[in-house]
Structure formats: structure tokens, C-alpha cells
Amino acid sequence: MAYGQTGTGKTYTLGRLGEEDTANRGIMVRAMEDILAEVSPERDTVSVSYLQLYMESLQDLLDPTKDNISIIEDHKSGDVSLPGATVVEIRDQQSFLELLRLGEAHRHAANTKLNTESSRSHALLMVHVKRSVKGRESAHSSENSNNTSMSKSLRPPLVRKGKLVVVDLAGSERIDKSGIEGHTREEAKSINLSLSALGKCINALAENSAHVPVRDSKLTRLLRDSFGGTARTSLVITIGPSPRHRGETASTIMFGQRAMKVENMLKLKEEFDYKSLARRLDIQLDNLIMEHERKEKEFEAEIGRITTDVQNRISEAERNYADAMEKERLKYQKDYMESIKKLEEKWMMNQQNQGSERQEQMVHTAEEVAELNKLLSKETSLRKAAEDEVNNLKSQLAQLKMSEASGNSEILKLRKMLEGEVSQKKKLEGEISILQSQLLHLSFESDKTRRRLDRGGAGNDTGGLDSLFSQVRPQLKDSGNGEKASVARLFEQVGLQKILSLLEAEDADVRIHAVKVVANLAAEETNQEKIVEAGGLKTLLTLLGSSEDETIRRVAAGALANLAMNETNQELIMSQGGISLLSMTATNAKDPQTLRMVAGALANLCGNDKLQTKLSGEGGLKALLGIVKCGHPDVLAQVARGIANFAKCESRASTQGNKSGRSLLIEDRALPWIVQHSNSDASPIRRHVELALCHLAQHEVNAKDMINEGALWELIRISQDCPREDIRTLAHRSLTSSPTFIAEMRQLQIDY
Q1: pLDDT band with cut points at 50, 70 and 90 for residue 113
Q2: Quick one: a GO cellular component term (predicted)?
Q3: What is the pLDDT of residue 446?
Q4: What is the residue-wise DSSP string for 283-342?
Q5: Identity of the highest mean pLDDT range in 20-29, 490-499, 501-510, 685-694
Q6: Cα distance between residue 355 and residue 197, in whole Å
Q7: How confident is the model at residue 495, as a pLDDT?
Q8: For residues 548 and 563, what is the distance between their CA atoms, to the nearest angstrom?
Q9: What phi and psi, each to the nearest 5 degrees, are found at residue 549?
Q10: Rounded to whole angstroms, how far apart are CA atoms 87 and 62?
């Protein structure tokens, strides 16, 4: 289809014959060349109709006497046919060119200020192709053929149909620019009305509207297959270079953009000759019955023969078994007697050997006594040598005492140096004690505020917030200038680098207070970049993976949740293995508050379009779904928020064409949990789950899985009973725009 302002080259693009220069052939001529190159005269037929829509009257360009052809629509298949149009069978390219010349001679055109030969009608070229697919050999061929080849040969005659429609739309024009009047003015009004009706249909289809006004114009009735139907549609947009027509150019481009959003469902059209198939099946059935009766008789005879043979073999095997058992018994008895004799002979030999061994022991004892005498004499000589060595050491000791005096002066110098080091150590310990007291005070204020918030906000709707950022920020606000001032004062006096260094302290209490301070600092957006630049993100991930203290892991996960609000920090968390560490923490943690922090961090990461595939591949999505075992309402609210964020990002990526295939949530078996909690009593859980269901239903590829899991009923309930109007509208649009959902509701006789 070619669409654009008058005089911008639509007819030049589609209808040029290229008689003078073959390089100037239009799409109609080139398309027919490709079709004729692919078809076979023996099995294929190609026929052509050429019409124009002039002043809302459908006329035959090949037979001008047919000036008001009716349009017939098949309500079952949705096909559009023109029974009154002339259909000419094409055998070669030359005959097709002659038909195009004939049609162009009858087409309405006029001279305007914008175009000397302006088309005043919409031209439609329809090319019909039919291909007969021949079956294999008939079942009548031979009685000796086996049943397998006979069943394969029974195929119904098959006819495949295809249709190419090339539409040269008349150009849209403004009457004040074209300078037309009289009858030509009425023609322009008719053209603009039909193009306006086409634009309304494109808008309705692009917005998934429930009603598409295809019956407002004959043009839209003829083209209902091209947009939103079963055709593969290509749209050519033509524009002019003149800045005078900037408005028409922008309108044409916007029409093309809206048309690109329309999705067609391609369909292969085939027809079968079922009567011929029935006759062949009757013949095959008779042959199979005869063959079955013959084989049944042979089978009964074979069973009788096998039964007799088996009985004979059983009796023979029983006899052989009895003989073998008797032979085995005699063999074992003989071996037993021989073993008894060997043992008696061996016992006698042992008795004789014991006497000789006693004599050998006496000789060996005498040799040992002689050896001991030799050792005694050797020890005596060694003792004399040791006494000489002691005397020598005494003389050396006297010399050492003389050198001791010179060493005392060196010791005094070292002692003075040691006293200086001790004073420096005391000074450093004083600074550390000040830091610890500040950390203890700040941690006490943080715990006190958190307990007050938990007692006062147990019934609040925490699941509806976009992140866990609000879980720390209200603490600062509620405590007024207390804790916030303490954090700011500590931050200014001590410095971020020293606070982060305390995260690696050996004292567990110091680490706990330090990580609480970092978590409170991370709640402020202005501090997050400083924490990441100073290496705080890496230190928090290390603590999360290595620490065995539940408090440290809980507060570290909360700090990561606050940092994960920033898109740059999200990518850093992913690149440094944060998903694996959060998944491991979710698996090992038992405390609901720790699980809530981990779920909040994962939920924030689920809201990043770039991390969808990596989040699922590294197990983050499965870890989020595994947290639901906890059953705590606050934890489930964070899980539901993460699933809603993930589904929303997937929906956006699919709409933009960046993703295809089923949802990763469905692949990771999240759909049963979503359906189960879509009507939860807790409003935060229910709202996020309802949003996730609506986003999943936006894409047709997820429809079958959602129907199998019972999500269709929940979508119907959401579209009718949800208290939020935006969610009701989204659910209604998902149901009415999905052919799969519509077909299922019709099958279930649901009046929607």
C-alpha cells in the first residue's frame, strides 16, 4: 500500500510499467515477475483483477461497464470477496502488462496545481494464486502393499490459496493548495473522507480499541485483511521535499508510525477434499479388517505352539535343576572332608614349630644382655664429656656478665622509645573510644526509632512503596533533628572513610554500630554516591557474604536496598556479584526482617530493564520466589512488588520489540503463586499481584499459560471488582485485545 500527499510519487512507485527503461518498473510489475518465476503451469494458476474506488463506487478497470461492484464479507473466515469483478488468468508477463495498460487508461485523473496527472481514485490490483498439492499413490494400487505404505498414501487433495493486493491510494490534498473546484472538488472531498476513515481504523487498531470502524468506508472494508487481519502488510510512505507542505509531511509520517503498531496474525489458507479422503479410508478400513482377522488366526495358532513349547522347556529345566543340585551337594561334601584333613595336618606342624621357637628366644635374650652392657659403657664416657662441657659453659657465663653492663645502657634507650609509643597508643585509644561512644549513641537512637516505627506502622501499606528507601527515611523524619543531626555530626567530625574502616573492625559490636550508621547514611540520596566512591558498596557486599551475625546481615541488606534505588548502583551491584550474595542470604536467613530487607533489594533490582535476563540467569528471581516460604505479610508484600516491577519491565521491553517469547516469570514458575495471591486479604500484596497479572496478559505469547493456571478468571474479576480504576482499565484492555482470551471466554460461554 502506498500512502502520502498528492504528487509525492505513489503511482510512480507502484504502477510504472518500465517500457522505456526496465530499471523504472514499479512494484506491480516486479511483483508479478517474481510470482511467475516461482509458479508451475502444471499445478499453479495465477489470476488478476484490477479495480478502482471512485467517489465511493467500486469500478472494474478491465471492464468499465461494471461500475458498482458489491463487496461480500464472509463472517466466519473474515475474507472479503468481489464476485462481480473481472478475473483474468495470467500465463506470462506480457499479458499482465497489457492488462495494466488497459486499466490505467480507464483510471480517473485530473490536472491540479500540485500534480498535472493527479489520481482521483484509489487503485487496487488483486493477484490470486492457487496451488494444487498432489497426494501420494492411491490405496487401490496393489493388494500386496503393506498397511504402513497404504496408510501413508491416504492423503486428501490439498489446495493452497494466496492473494496479493497492491493498493495505490489517491493522494490527500488541501483544496486551498491544489486550487481545484467544481466536480474535482467533490472528488477531493470523497478521497479525503475515505483516507480519514482509514486513519481512524489504524488509530483504533494501534490503541487496541474494542471497536474498529471498518464499515465507515468501502476502502476500509476492502483493506480489513491488510490491517489487523491475516495478511502480511508492507506500507510505502511518500512525502515531498518542499517546506511548504511540512504539515502534510508530518501527518503522513505519523500515519506510518501508527500503522507500524498494528499487529497482523498470518494464516496459511488450505482446503481439503474430505469426500475423497472418506472413500479411501473406507477401502483402507476393509483391508485392515481382513488383515486383522488373518493375523488373529495366525496369532492363536502361534500362542498354542508357544504354550506347548514352554511346558516342555519347563519340565526339562526342572530335571536339569535337580541333577545340578545333587552334583553340587556331592562336590561341597568332598571339599569339606579335604579341608578338615588339611587343618589337622597344619595343627600338628604348629606344635612342632613352637618348641624350636623357644630355643631361638633364649639365644636372642643373651644377645640383648650383651648389647645393654655396651650401651652402659658408652653412657659413662658421654657423662665425662658432659662434665667437661659444663666447665666450659661456666667460663662463657662469666664473659656474658661482663657484656651485660654494656647492654643495660642500650635497654634504657629502648625503654624511653617504648614509653613514647605507649603515650601515642593511649592517644589513639582515646580517639577510638570517642568514635565508639558516638557509634553506640547513634545505633541506640536508630534502634529506638526503628522499634517505634515498627510498633506504629504494623498495619500501614508498606508494600505499596516503590522501594525500601522509605523504611529508613521516615525514621530520620520522625526523630526530628535527633538521629539525623547525629548522623550529620558524625559524618562531619569523623569522615566517611573512617566510618567505613570500622566495618572491618575485629570487635563485633563496633561492626554492628558502624553498619547501622552506613545504612542510615545510605537512606539519604546525597550520600549514596559518596558511599559507593569510597568503596562502601564493596564492603557491604563482603559483610553480607562473610558475616554470620544476623543483625549485620539484616542491616547490610537494608543498606543495599537503599543503594539499589539508583540505576548506576544497580548495575554495580550486579557486576560485583550482589545477586548471588542476596540469593545466598535469602536461603540461609530465618529472621523475617532480614528476609524483608533482602526482598526489598531484589525488588528494586527487578525494576531495571537492562538487568532482566541477568537477574533471572543468576538466580535472583528464583531467590525472590523462594522467600515466600516465610509467609510474613511484609515479606510477601516486597516479593509481590518485585514481581510487579519485573512484569512491568518485561511488558515495556516486549512492546518496544526488545524481547520475544514467554515471560521469564512463567519460565521460573512464578505464575501459580501470582494467581494464588491475586485475591489476597492484604491490600499491598493484592495490588502488586493484580498489576503483575495485567502486565503479563498484555502479550499474546503468555495467554495459553495464564489460561492453564486459572489467571483468566482472576483477570475478569480484576476488570470488574478492583477498586483502582487504572488497574480495572488495564485488565479490561488485556482481555479484549487478546484473541486467545476472547476465544476461551466464548468457549466457556462467558458474556464479557
Answers
A1: low
A2: spindle microtubule
A3: 56
A4: HHHHHHHHHHHHHHHHHHHHHHHHHHHHHHHHHHHHHHHHHHHHHHHHHHHHHHHHHHHH
A5: 20-29
A6: 126
A7: 65
A8: 22
A9: -80, 125
A10: 9
- Give the three cell numbers for residue 17: 510499467
Contact 100, 17 (CB under 8 A): yes
pLDDT in tens, 118-164: 777 899 999 999 887 765 433 334 444 445 454 555 566 677 889 99
Instruction: Take residue 254 and report the three cell numbers written for it.
Output: 505519523
- Residues 657 and 203: their CA atoms lie apart, in Å, by 20
> Where does residue 275 rank: exposed (0-12), middle (13-18), buried (19+ CB within 10 A)?
exposed
CA distance linking residue 624 with residue 639, whole number of Å:
6
Mean pLDDT, all residues of the chain: 79
Answer yes or no: are the C-beta atoms of 714 and 675 closer than 8 Å: yes
* Greatest Cα pair distance in the chain: 149
Closest Cα partner for 128 from 97, 159, 107?
A: 159
Per DSSP, helices labelled H in 225-273 are 246-260
The verdict on pTM exceeding 0.70 is: no
The distance from CA 240 to its chain's CA centroid, rounded to whole angstroms, is 43
- DSSP annotation of 172 reads B
- Determine the Cα angle at 273 with ends 267 and 277, to 5°: 125
Q: Which residues are annotated as a binding site for ATP?
A: 4-11
* Alpha-carbon span 327 to 325, nearest angstrom: 5
Nearest to 222 by CA among 169, 159, 160: 169
Question: What span, in angstroms and rounded, lies between the C-alpha atoms of 600 and 180?
Answer: 67
Name the residue with cell 467533490. 186
Q: Which of 232, 236, 233, 229 is nearest to 255 (CA)?
A: 236
Q: How far apart are CA 120 and CA 14, in angstroms?
A: 16
Length of the chain: 752
Distance CA 646, CA 663 (A): 10
Helix 683-696 crosses helix 725-737 at what angle (to 10 degrees)?
30
User: What pLDDT, on the 0 to 100 scale, is given for residue 624?
Assistant: 82
Q: Whose grid coordinates read 485485545?
A: 737
* Assigned C-alpha cell, 203: 488509530
Q: Residue 581: which of 610, 527, 618 has the closest Cα?
A: 618
State mean pLDDT over 618-633.
82
* Rounded (10°) CA dihedral 668, 669, 674, 677: -130
| 581 CB-near residues (< 8 Å, 6+ apart) | 541, 544, 545
Q: Is the pLDDT of residue 484 over 50?
A: no
Lowest mean per-residue pLDDT among 35-39, 84-88, 186-190, 535-539: 535-539
Among 560, 543, 637, residue whose Cα is nearest residue 596: 637
C-alpha cell at 36: 511467475
Which residues, 6 or more positions from 639, have their beta carbon under 8 angstroms from its beta carbon? 599, 603, 624, 625, 627, 628
pLDDT band at residue 87 using 50, 70 and 90 as cut-offs: very high
Distance CA 518, CA 472 (A): 11
CB-based burial of residue 738 (10 Å sphere; 0-12 exposed, 13-18 middle, 19+ buried)? buried
CA 642 – CA 634 distance, rounded (Å): 13
Best CA proximity match to 730, nearest among 703, 674, 700, 690: 690
Residue 243, burial from CB neighbour count under 10 angstroms (0-12, 13-18, 19+): exposed
Q: What is the pLDDT of residue 360?
A: 67
pLDDT at residue 80 above 50?
yes
The tens digit of pLDDT for each residue in 220-248 reads 998 887 877 788 889 999 998 888 889 88
List all residues 6 or more positions away from 104 whose beta carbon is below 8 Å from its beta carbon. Answer: 15, 61
Of all helices (H) and strands (E), which one includes residue 162? strand 158-168
* Cell numbers found for residue 516: 547501622
pLDDT of amino acid 110:
67
> 565 by DSSP, 3-state: which?
coil
Cα separation, 605 vs 583, whole angstroms = 13
Which amino acid belongs to residue 245? H
